[in-house]
Fold these 2 entries.
Entry 1:
Amino acid sequence: MANAIRLQMAEKKKLPFVLKLWITVNEDTTECLRWNTAKNAVIVDLGLLVTDYTKALFDIETEEDFLSQMRRNQFVLSSTDPSNPEIFVFRKKLFVKRNDKKFREVLLAEKIMRRICGKTT
């Protein structure tokens, strides 16, 4: 990711769900969460989802835990793959790749605020 904001796992875990998802989709670190071709929806591969990394980052134990977080954060299931029932495609209005700059600004602000506030708590 160009101009990436590097965060350690401990920092990522403290972020809101949507920012964690944004980082994961854009880092290309896992096959289970990725952009669709148009980069306007997130593909979730439930068969690959529950790994040590995603369990720790998203604080989940099961696929259903993750799907519940998606619903709580207003992601809408837009389609599934009939040939592979473990593939789900989710959409959220502003969760699109072209908003990369806005998300990076929010991530940077979160990182700065956590460092400032972390020193006083």
Entry 2:
Amino acid sequence: MHGMREIIKRIPVVGPAITRIHRNLFFKQKPFPGSEGYWIQRYATGGNSGEGSYNRLAEFKAEIINGFVKDNRVTSIIEYGCGDGNQLKLAEYPSYVGFDISPKAIEICSDFFRNDKTKSFKMMSEYMGEKAQLTLSMDVIYHLIEDDIYNSHMERLFSSSERFVIIYSSDYDDEHIYHEKRRKFTRWVDAFALNWKLKSHIPNRFPFNGRDQTGSLSDFYIYEASRDLVNK
């Protein structure tokens, strides 16, 4: 039976559709505790940031962001949703502040990077208006189920950046499946981030092909502030 499931997954169109139906049936049996509650529970019970923060997807993300930071001489970075810090182990950042809603995630990151003076970590509730040249949202947007939380995340992401915003996410609307809700976030940017322009769109080197752990639906979207905003 396991072999048959793997064969079905590999069939273009059919594979992803079957996988999606299976996920729908599975998650309908579990009550959803809300975006914040889900991630707090997940880390508290030994869960991690997910496949996107490990192995070749993590390496791909690090390659893109490290190169961007170096090429654009970025000196300060804020990330909203730092997670368990595994992705950050590959980062080459001059100065970094990571925020998260999970106390356990902050504890894990603070402990692992305790001797790294270039990195610090805070609960999202501790945000006090900090700004950085670059702000990051990586594999976060489609995990924000509630509209108010999503809008707050997007607003803070852009208002706290002085030069660049990098979003790593899918960009299409889709139904809510337990802890995921796909959003066409570029529509929000076009409507509310009027002083920002899309500098670059980088497709994923390992696009999703029906096997959850081998690819991603996320691409890179890199935004740059207008000259007027930078000179304020």
